[in-house]
Amino acid sequence: MLGFGRCYHTYHLALKSPSNNQAKIESGCLAPPTKHLQGVASVPTRSDFKRKKQRMWNVSGNSRLRPSPPVIKPNQMSWHPQYRSSKFRHVYGKPASKENCYDSVPITRSVHDNHFCAVNPHFIAVVTECAGGGAFLVIPLHQTGKLDPHYPKVCGHRGNVLDIKWNPFNDFEIASCSEDATIKIWNIPKQLLTRNLTTYRKELVGHSRRVGLVEWHPTAANILFSAGYDYKVMVWNLDTKESVIANPMRTITCHQDVILSMSFNTNGSLLATTCKDRKIRVVDPRVGIVLQEASYKGHRANKVLFLGNLKKLLSTGTSRWNNRQMALWDQDNLSVPLTEEDLDGSSGVLFPFYDSDTSMLYIVGKGDGNIRYYEVNPEKPYLSYLTEYRSYNPQKGIGVMPKRGLDVSSCEIFRFYKLITTKSLIEPVSMIVPRRSESYQEDIYPPTAAAQPSLAAHEWLSGINREPVMMSLRPGSELLDSQPLPPEKPLSNFMFQVSPQPLEPMAQLVTKDGHTHCSLLDEKASKWATEQRLEEKSWLTNGFDVFECPPPKTENELLQMFYRQQEEIRRLRELLIQREVQTKQLELEIKNLRMGLGQF
After folding, report:
1. C-alpha angle 208-212-217 in degrees, rounded to nearest 5
2. Pairing assessment for the beta strands 223-228 and 211-216 based on DSSP bridges
3. Per-residue pLDDT tens over the stretch 159-176
4. Full strand arrangement of the beta sheet holding 134-140
5. What is the predicted pLDDT for the residue at 67?
6. What is the pLDDT of residue 134?
7. DSSP of 212-250, one letter per residue?
């Protein structure tokens, strides 16, 4: 044991100076290490640590130690991302107050993946529970607060209602589809419903199984699409006198499973669908031919949406690992998505909504409380995340207000209606661009689609495509396209009714002295008539006539009605004062013209 300890000590001392090891071994003074001491030779020395420290800290001479700059890979995000300017970086969601929500609404318990809600500037329609068949509620937009338990329903289906959609060109017409394999078209009266509405205008009978989706054509009047569980998409022409239509104009039979969603491009010449086989198809809706089909295995699509005029599609679904995902596609090439983005691991369906006026994309998850929104760019990066609206109340369904029903005075660019089943509540959420000025913001309200069709049904069926009729959201503006408008009341009658006496000498002035002296009065008259039309339109609040309000039923509604009447009285007083001032101005101008003619 003593010899072995001396031998180990000799080897240990020799290994402390590795520069002399090889010479001593060659001269015979040091024997090579044995097998059981091989691991001792691999012990790192001080020089090894020094060389490692030099590589880590990049030492040169006696200079100060400094870390080497990080190497950024081509696909790695840098610490200083490039600044991107946007008008919508600070958009925020503003939920309505308790008084402006719709409370005690019996929302449906159906597990179908649909919106269950449809909104226009006059009404909000919600699918509800009904014994012995399917029904939905149609509530005037202004009638907020607690809903009467015996509020009238729109009922006539023998099965549960699965989808409802308002006609984009008629705010008093709505389509509904049901598990009874029928589609019904309803006319909603302008007055408040006093009893259940069971009389429908048209019934479409053609599907052999339940109908899960309905969709109106975006530019042609009276063209409706329906998708059923018989794997068929049917095209209906409602411009007929028949009350029951059994034969659709076209039946698209290219799908191999249940259709999950449908979406049109801007002019309605293309139809995009998703199917339960997780494939995306772009179809010619007139002929039924599949133009493009996506068979990408990495993305299982559930909902699809055309992104305006960008010639792109956005789909939401799941990835291979069952993460919720959205993908962006080129509508002319569906082989591989342009980009994919995983969101989270939840299981609820994602509903996409796109605003072509602001190029903003909203993602709403079923069972979520939040709403994510992005900005869509035509070039890379295609999707720019802005932020999200967060809430503790999960939504079962969602409704969206058309752009023509928004409040432009508060810079509102989008409005959702969340169906909260846990509270039997419908909560409006407004997406607002923060601006200090109270004037009309032209840059965030470009021309948008109007409630007027650009094509008749027979024109679209014959193969004509046309862009939608556009309108400005500025209060009092008219349609931008040169379309024939309904005739207006003659201005002369209105002028004579307002002030008949001062206008009698006007005719004498015109006969005596041509157009030079009446040009100013013509300008005043046209300006006055324009203001009169604006004031007539201002009687409508969000498209509802304030003089047709139903009688209040609760104390809260009574107070709201009282404040509205007080505001209306104040506005009418101001209007009367303005009219008196204008009358005096006209009388003074006529007097000046008489004096001028007397001098000549």
Report:
1. 105
2. antiparallel
3. 999 999 999 999 999 999
4. 117-119, 123-128, 134-140, 154-157
5. 46
6. 86
7. EEEEE-SSBTTEEEEEETTS-EEEEE--SS-SEE-S-SE
